[in-house]
């Protein structure tokens, strides 16, 4: 089996993830993009279709990182690649601070300057983006994206595939449902239902604004 990693994605988020993987000592063999992708991403050849994945698996590659910002697409491609027999790897910056008592899922990105504190739980395929802080006892479900410079206070629960926009703040003990969206710069002081978009300070459902 080949130890090099296949990165699915070839955009800006993929660039950051490739550098995280390289910083932890991994080598990236190829990116897999789509027909509109660039030819190379940080000097790594981009194969321009998911159709290449099966051939790469047959060639002996078994480690994959899904570097796609969209939560739903990331989940779909993770399912597709794991069904082919790929294993999801993590990309964790050496400049992140991760508590030894935190639990981490598979296929996660934890970027520079982020902090994951005591007994927090980070689900599979989550993104903890640059400078985001996830405090004690927080629980992030599958495929949650916490954008740069967000601050989650203690014991915040976020349901699968939800997105927390750049610079948002969430007070302690808040529950957010699945596939919810918190707009950039929001301050969340009450629970949020699934599939709702909220914005503002304090955050309110978008349709009420
Ligand atoms: C919340 C968000 C998803 C809404 O996007 P959208 O559905 O396209 O909404 P629109 O841009 O049409 O805006 C609808 C209304 O909400 C307001 N609004 C949108 N985002 C807002 C925000 N973050 N805070 C306050 N008001 C906001 C708009 O001003 C607009 O108000 P109006 O109807 O009075 O003109 C988007 O604005 C946002 O904040 N995205 C976060 C992006 C991000 O953090 N990316 C990080 C990537 S790592």
From TrEMBL:
Family stated for the protein in its record: Belongs to the transferase hexapeptide repeat family.
InterPro entries given in the database record: AcTrfase_PglD-like, Hexapep_transf_CS, PglD_N, Trans_hexapeptide_repeat, Trimer_LpxA-like_sf
PROSITE patterns for the chain: HEXAPEP_TRANSFERASES
Name of this chain's protein: Acetyltransferase
Keywords: Repeat, Transferase
PglD N-terminal domain span: 4-80
């Amino acid at each position: 089996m080949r130890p090099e990693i296949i990165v699915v994605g070839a955009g800006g988020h993929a660039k950051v993830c490739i550098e995280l993987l390289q910083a932890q000592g991994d080598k990236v063999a190829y990116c897999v993009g789509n027909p509109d992708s660039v030819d190379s991403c940080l000097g790594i050849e981009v194969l321009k279709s998911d159709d290449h994945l099966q051939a790469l698996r047959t060639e002996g590659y078994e480690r994959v990182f899904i570097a796609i910002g969209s939560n739903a697409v990331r989940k779909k491609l993770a399912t597709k690649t794991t069904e082919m027999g790929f294993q999801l790897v993590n990309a964790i910056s050496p400049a992140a601070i991760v508590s030894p008592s935190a639990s981490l899922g598979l296929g996660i990105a934890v970027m520079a300057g982020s902090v994951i504190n005591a007994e927090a739980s980070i689900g599979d395929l989550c993104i903890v983006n640059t400078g985001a802080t996830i405090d004690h006892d927080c629980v992030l479900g599958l495929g949650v994206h916490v954008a740069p410079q967000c601050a989650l206070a203690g014991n915040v629960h976020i349901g699968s595939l939800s997105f927390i926009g750049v610079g948002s703040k969430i007070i302690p003990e808040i529950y957010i449902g699945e596939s919810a969206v918190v707009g950039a710069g929001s301050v969340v002081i009450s629970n949020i239902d699934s599939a709702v978009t909220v914005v503002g300070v304090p955050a309110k459902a978008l349709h009420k604004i």
